Amino acid sequence: RKKPVRVAVTGAAGQISYSLLFRIASGEMLGEDQPVILHLLEQPEALKALEGVVMELEDCAFPLLRGVVQTSDLAEAFKSVKYALLVGAKPRTKGMERGDLLRDNAKIFSAQGKALNDHADKSCLTLVVGNPANTNALIAASNAPDLAPENFSAMTRLDHNRALSQLSAKLSIGVEEIKNMAIFGNHSATQYPDVSQTGLTLDDQWTKATFVPNVQNRGAEIIKFRGSSSAASAADSALKHMHDWALGSEEIVSMAIPSDGSYNVAKGLYVSYPVKCHGQGKYTVVDDWKLNDYAKQKIDLSIKELQDEKKAVGELLKS
Ligand code: NAX
């Protein structure tokens, strides 16, 4: 049996975590031979609700779950963790400007970046789910000078899977038959799902007028119907993102990672790219796709948005 590893999850009493924690504890994220100790971070006012979630975790009697830490203290939350899933974030409330949302979250993620730097395992892999995810990842990584920027990423796997599902339904083929599709840019309505390398025969008009906007706006559509934002599907994507990052993947997946300059993106911005995961946190960007002018134009818009977000959070970027 392997030694247990410590996994931190923030926003642990929230709705995404309510789907996520049980699946991590069952072994779906790191494998059925990997025991885990969960470190759950919450705001002080949500610790009672978190206690209830932990009672339910206990009631599942998961053989792989070797301990649970519940805390609102950053040092305790990140002590010796090898994986961190930063889910908790300040939601946008009525009348709040986008700039305020960016700055409020920048404060949360700069503090969490510092705490990860000081307390987490030096090889810790950190996934940012809380929005604005790409810029939050940039802020956390910038405040963690002793950790590699490549060990931070932001989640665009849900967008990736939404795109696969749309294509599968349109062409009546299995999702597993669709390869070489990727999300480029920001996890926002400017993201660009690129189908040009899939080898599928698609009507260009459908792709531009229906597919791309459907993927870009799917999150808002879910809210319209469900009354609250995607939770189980977001948890599923977080799990798959971490699984592939830690253990490797056969297929190309989408992850927002620090740009190495590929596809003319300014270095260091956290941008979604087609990525191959090799296991143990190693990945390479697939950097040889020939994108057409339409795609390049769309991706540039999304990158411009990321640059504007970076400007808006200014001084909270340490390095
Ligand atoms: P909830 O509001 O249900 O839960 C968030 C939890 O985080 C709350 O319990 C809150 O007390 C806690 N929290 C807030 N600030 C915290 C802090 N500084 N430290 C620790 N805990 C803190 O939101 P939920 O639906 O779970 O969504 C969480 C985040 O995921 C949101 O920012 C949301 O926008 C984002 N999403 C990102 C997606 C992606 O694809 N990257 C998709 C789904 C989701 O929209």
From TrEMBL:
Documented EC number(s): 1.1.1.37
Similarity annotation: Belongs to the LDH/MDH superfamily. MDH type 2 family.
Enzyme class: oxidoreductase
Keywords: NAD, Oxidoreductase
Molecular function per GO: L-malate dehydrogenase (NAD+) activity
GO biological process entries: malate metabolic process
Domain Lactate/malate dehydrogenase N-terminal: 5-146
Record-given protein name: malate dehydrogenase
Residue ranges of domain Lactate/malate dehydrogenase C-terminal in the record: 156-313
